Each structure stands twice: as C-alpha cells, then as structure tokens.
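Q: Here's a chain of 239 amino acids. Please give me its 3D structure as tokens.
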Amino acid sequence: KAELTQIKSSDGIYAPSRITSRILRARENLAVEVINPPVTVASPNFEKNASCGTYVLFFGSIGQLKGCDRLLNVLPRLLEKNPDFKFMFVGPFRHGEEQVRYDALLSDLRYAERVKVLKEQRREDIFQLIGNARYVVLPSKIDNFPNTCIEAMLFRKVVVGTHDASFDEIIDHGVNGYLVSQSNDDELFSVMDEVWNMGTDRLERMGDAAHESLRKLTPEITITRLIEYYQQVIEANKK
C-alpha cells in the first residue's frame, strides 16, 4: 500500500519489464515507461571442473512463486528416463515454504545422489555453479526481468523460462533459450528432457546466441535511455 501511494504521487514511473508496466496500467491506470536494466556483457570468469555439463541448475529463492513445485512434479520422470541426469537447487527457501517435498525427493534412494539442495551461496560460488551447469531452468510464475536469467545468459547458458513472466522479453524460443507454459508440466518435462539430450554443438550455439542477445542491454543503450527519460520528466514538470 505504501509503495502504491508513492508510485501514484510520482512525476514519472519506469519499470524494468513490460509485464510490470502492464500490471500497473491495468490495475491502476498508470503510465509506466519500460527501461531495461544495464548489463555489462563481458563473460564472467569461472573454472571448469569435473562436474561441468553434468547437472541442470535452478538458482534463486526456492518456492512455488519461482515454479519449484513444478520442478518437483517433473524431476522424478526426468531422473527415471535419463540415468545420467542430475539436478541442483541453489538458494534460500522462501518464507513459509514447506521443505518436506524436497526432503522426500532427496531421501528417495533412487535419486539421493542425483539431486542436491544447496543453501544460499557466495556470489563467486554461484558463478562457479552457473558456469559448470549444462543449462538453467527458471519456471517462475511471475518475475520482473530477473537477474537470474541475465546472469545465466552471461555465462552462455541456455535458459528454460516461462511465458508471461517477463522471460519472453529476452528469450526467443528455440533461438537463445526456451519458453514453456505456466501450467503444462508435460511441456516442461519435454523441453527439459530435450535440452538435456541436446548435442553439445547446438547447446553452445544457443548459449552464444543468449550471450549476444544481451548486447541490447549495454549501459551505453540503457543508461542513455534512462537519462533521456529523466530529462523528459523534468521538462514536463517545470514550473
């Protein structure tokens, strides 16, 4: 309520994603400019290790809002179909989220060595985990141009995201990543299985395309646009 009061009293409003802009327009009839956040496109450094390419990664807040309940639905099928498939959750559990289902998956002797849940990591350790993942899956129910997606793409990783959650503002399906529906777990399973079994050459080409697509977010572009917007607001509100 306090945030909305502040927003309504502001001379200008901008958001990092179209989905946030649409929500505020629809609910409050507010004009919201969309200005994406700046990204430096230099590839981060990491050391490849023996686990490189042997696991799929989810990182961020672990909970239903980020679609982790859906991952629990599809992981047993993926593990059953692919004997070499491994998965890693990394991050804190959201407040109030039940850890029981994750513990049940981990305690299943068939999968105990192939699924890990790691607590929140230091930034440099997260970089290592992203860099050595085969691909990243982020099946959020809603998001706001998330840093997790951008960071994965900086590491030239294919990201499996969701439609209508802001991932479609940066992911071109089948070109630099994949998009699945918000509710069809069979589709999520199929895409995760497809990317797991994808040839290395194609996976690397898509990863390169993911990294290249971030060039539209360089500071030279985004900060220039932000300054222009500030100037527009200042000019429009001169006394």
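Q: Can you summarize the key feature?
A: The longest strand covers residues 56-59.
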